[in-house]
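Shipment paperwork, digital attachment
Item: protein structure file
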Amino acid sequence: MYQLFIEGLQRLGRALMLPIAILPIAGLLLRLGDTDLLNIAVMHDAGQAIFANLALIFAIGIARGLCPRQQRHRRTGRGHWLPGDGLHPQGHGQHHQHGHARRDRQRLMAGALYNRFKDIKLPEYLAFFGGRRFVPIVTGFSAVGLGVIFGLIWPPVQHGINSFGVLLMESGSLGAFVFGVFNRLLIVTGLHHILNNMAWFVFGSFTDPATGAVVTGDLTRYFAGDPKGGQFMTGMFPVMLFGLPAACLAMYRNALPERRKIMGGIFLSMALTSFLTGVTEPIEFAFMFLAPFLYLLHALLTGLSMAVTNLLDIHLGFTFSGGFIDMVLGWGKSTNGWLVIPVGLAYAVIYYSVFNYCIRRFNLKTPGREDIQVVQAEAMSDNQRASAISAPWAAPTTCSASAPAPPVCAWTWSTVTRPWTPSSRPWGRWPWCAPAMAAACRWWWGRWPTALPMRFAWPCRQPASPRPHLPALSPRWPTLPRPRPNNG
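Attachment content:
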């Protein structure tokens, strides 16, 4: 039961990645079109439209993410939350603090109902509504029932979530530390997206002075102009811009000398990925299971970064992650954003020192330090290697002495020469040298040879018992007699 519960949460975490992936373009349009940058109203309104319809985007994204890849239906997640939203006391279209959490329940229900009824068979007179067409119908009725049930039981749960969010926000640096630690620890199971979704899109509320709309969540509040926004985002910049690239340098310096050149390119690409985009999973999964102790220290250092930035009153947000690109986009709305650079440089020194000391002191098997067994092959001579290669194809060469031997006995490899090897060819890898030598013998002696000399060995076959009316050739290439001069 516990395993099924964890697998369900992991599926939910993967489904959340689809709507989150659209946030970078939304932030890009919103910031570039703002008045302090390009001042393009159309571009700004396009980005604002995405943030204003996050509930609808998450509804579609989660429903698609929970459905099988080959059979996703885009309308499943869109039409199901309207009936349940209308049953809420605040009505459809009203922004409130837990709108995303309430609609998440209905998105999960839509994905489950699609998987359950996508292949349903109805009677002949109702066959048109069978299969996937039945899913919106059953989802609409289920949303009404779910809205009634959760309208009664959800207020205490909502109050608990609200109290937890208020506690984290009012705890200041301590709340930011707790969020940072659990944000990194939950990456192991993939459940960190659920925590991020609550902190970035649910906790806290702010009234946008430009539109008068109430926005919730640390991320949306920051881009709406809330001076307190960014509490759960700022601490990511020192870690992703400076800390983890320094950790890559420490692991590279401690790699085995014979593997350092290979690992250098790998660590460089991972460090650039973290610095530019804020995607840290390639680095973290590189040592997460090889050195769990290091990953625990990394989680604690992330929480400490969140606490320090909050203590220094630094507010800097992002749309996707704490990379350099997002830092540039969110810089215009930041508070004391320049302090991220000195804090990040200090974090680079801390990360490098901690990783370097722990790897050497505890002999941690980080990438490039794994024990690799080297198997040394036994040295073989050319004749032994050739015999081993030709053994599977060699045919028996024994002929019965009592029974009359056939004109040609079993074909086999040449008995007067060693079997063919690549080094025995006189002119590299050209395959026509042996036929050319055989043609020379035919022209000189008037017959085709049954074997070639050892210098010009070829995988030719000859009778095991030479024909009696033809003399056997010498194993070596015979010295051709010079023609006598005709003195007349």
